[in-house]
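Researcher: Please generate the 3D structure of the following complex. Treat every line as part of one assembly.
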Amino acid sequence: MLSTQIPWLTTIILLPLVAALAIPLIPDNQGKTVRWYALGVGIADLILMVYAVWQNYDLQISTFQLAESYPWIPQLGMNWSVAVDGLSLPLVLLTGFITTLSILAAWNVTKKPRLFFALMLMMYSAQIGVFVAQDMLLFFLMWELELVPVYLLISIWGGQNRRYAATKFILYTAAGSIFILVAAFAMAMYGDVVTFDMATLGIKQYPRAFELLVYAALLIAFGVKLPIFPLHTWLPDAHSEASAPVSMILAGVLLKMAGYGLIRMNIEMLPNAHVSFAPILAILGVVNIVYGALTAFAQTNLKRRLAYSSIAHMGFVLIGIASFTELGIGGAVLQMVSHGLIAASLFFLSGVTYERTHTLIMEKMGGMAQAMPKVFALFTAGAMASLALPGMSGFVGELTIFLGITTSDAYNPMFKVVVTLLAAVGVILTPIYLLSMLRQVFYGNENSGIVIEEYLGDAKPREVFIAACLLLPIIGIGMYPKLATQTYDVKTVAVAAQVRQVLPTVIAQKQRSPLYSTALVAPQLAVPESQVLIASE
Amino acid sequence: MDFANLVDQLNAGTILPEGIVLTTLMVIVVGDLIVGRSASRWIPYTAIAGLLAAVVALYLQWNNPNPISFLGAFNSDDLSIVFRGIIALSTAVTILMSIRYIEQSGTALAEFIGIMLTATLGGMFLSGASELVTIFISLETLSISSYLMTGYTKRDPRSNEAALKYLLIGASSTGVFLYGVSLLYGLSGGETQLSAIASAIADANLSQSLGLVISLVFVIAGVAFKISAAPFHQWTPDVYEGSPTPVVAFLSVGSKAAGFALAIRLMNSAFPLLIDEWQFVFTALAVLSMVLGNVVALAQTSMKRMLAYSSIGQAGFVMIGLIAGTEAGYASMIFYLLVYLFMNLGAFTCLILFTLRTGTDQISEYSGLYQKDPLLTLCLSICLLSLGGIPPLAGFFGKIYLFWAGWQAGQYGLVLLGLVTTVVSIYYYIRVVRMMVVKEPQEMSDAVKNYPEVQWNLPGMRPLQVGLVLTLVATSLAGILSNPLFTLANSSIARTTTLQPIVISSHFSATVPAENSALQTQQ
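Model: Done. Output below.
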């Protein structure tokens, strides 16, 4: 069949990049041509993705599909090797979806539009590359490729403090990502054969101390990006200073690169070390949730509040990853997808608000529901999704993770109770800060100081369209989770099975961590209940 | 003995490339003498043609079955061919950028190019020299021409200062080097050929003698001065700041490459018994260079000084390959120097262009350049980001290969330090990019506000433009299409017999025929 021979993934990765390089050639026309061009490329790439998956991807198979591998630099053992599986697929689709919408959201960029859209398209390529790379050097390359575009996007089109935020972003991320390279070198050169192929690296057997070190290195690298509590300080700056379309991508896609990396590398390639680190991940997850929620509550800046809420929501991903259950790991992926959509919609809407009020300080706003009913309605819907209202994707994601951790037989009951309880506190804090945000911005009497740009008025059709595009899947996944779960659950079941396989052996070898269940025996690999449980909600 | 026989015995064909450069030099000097001032129109192009012809001649000598010539004084193995190619190419690109600069400074172009070709000749001979006297003479040819070039704009007091500083420090370092060499000569019982020295020392069982260690340290000091490795770097910032910019470009690429060629050959041929000692000394140099070069570069306000410190840091990175001591390590050095040639010369080309148009090289004066000169901004940004190791530019692949080789050889600490200092370097490189691209129109510096209209049709501007585009294209694409360069670097090492005894078996076979090599594509 012809369509299987086409290098789909390579085309999907390279299309935006090549298109970005062609931008200097297209006519200027005050940036009006270039935005249509960028949007066209974004949509074309999205269609290409959907078509390739539709034609050639079998959801029932947990292994890599659409695989391509060409030797790139054989002297280093580096291959251009790309493939998708259940873990990459939802995130690739999310990238295409969010990036295309953010290009549409950037319709009003008038400052250096060509550079802006070129950088957006480059970022598009890099992100897809990260999710589909099956070679660790290629993964690192794609990971680094996104640095400079994001740096420039923040530092040219950002808010007041943008240069500080951008520099902080690039230094944190670059410093974090060197650990990926170190881990790649360490794993690739262990043993006799030098290979960067992720699947081969996963099969290699490493000594325990080595595996723990590599795991820690990767945890730092991904911890900066996710972000995990003490390494998170770049995020509120970067996310709040970036302009709305860029924040959409930052919160919607970039953070997921780290969650993806944690599952792909830390769990799949280093399962033995994961058993030792999982309780720490769970604790860090709880810290993220509680700390993120409490700090968000203290923020007066709208986007900073949303940024801290991202930190809190990513904490759930960590708990899911640490749970050793199909439900938990599946929930982590679902939470990533769901947070990608929700965060993108909230950041987009805060951008819409900012365009009209020119301030992000919530105290200066107030009573705007009168002037902008549509924005108010959309914002409320987004906030509800974020605080995990049943019927929306946030609820499904968080609930699945809770179920995952509470049904996990790997931890002792005390630990599970504490983790669940504290995470639940975070869940209670979320509505507090989100509803207070809505109150401050939209309810009450109109703040006398606020100036709403009259000529803009309420949300324009384009803006409503973008928000609706994001809210529809949020509600869709909330009502019928299988919409999202079917793309990955075969894979997450396999991942959970893999990590559970090493669980008893590792625990038996080492003195048992007190956090793990004292009554731990080899857990039965139960029939996948995930669908049953999710469907019954 | 008839002449043909003599040529045969000396195997003089191996220095054909140098012969071409020498002939070009003669043509230029004599031509300038005869034709006079108007000769400056064709002289630079003759020089470039000569250098490219030398590169072609080098290519034809690739994989020479009989590389030893002049009774062992000169070794034209593939390692030397690559280094000679790098030096010749770097001079060719440097000449492209110097035409306009020298014209504008009001000095004679022919003499400048003559001196530069002499320096090139010295560097090329140095890359292949395998005998102490040849090494010393070629080193001096390179050094003395460099002193002359640094002081070439003689009406500029800073150029004079730079020349004097360079001369004084250079002379003392030469003295130290010569002292080390003389110890080596004595200890080996009067041998001058590197391989004979090594075996004589081994036979006399002198590998633990203090004299040999002192000689090693002194020789390394001389080499470290050439590659401007900390703590022998003190001359670098001042000389770079004061000298004419094309000279700086040559010093930072061509001269450095020659220094590295010397380091590889000397250490492997003359000191194989002291491998632990020299690796230790170079480790110290590498650590100091990476830390000092990259950290001090953060504080610089002048572009030339920043690039000076950055070149110290870059030398530190390249030394990782030397310390690794494996086949991959040497190959990674060559690969890095190849891409370094383009990205560093590209940065200097942009620097020259900016200085020519505005008369300043302060980093703060670059602010807002994007609005006025997008091409220059693009080229400088790409070159600086490549120096910082940002993918998918050439420097990224170069650094990856260096670190790869270092890690494979077990130099974990060095690689980690290299990675950390790379992050530091990203900061100061991107600071310049930020100046140019990010600043708002109202924040434009005075120099940029008065930026003259870009005119490429002034005399000497076309070659500058060619150099700019050439380095830009090479820096952007040499990484993505790096396979031929990798093959070139690897096969040059694999075929170099002097490196074989200590080489740890490599994991890949570098047996791609020489026809595939990329010497042609670099042009």
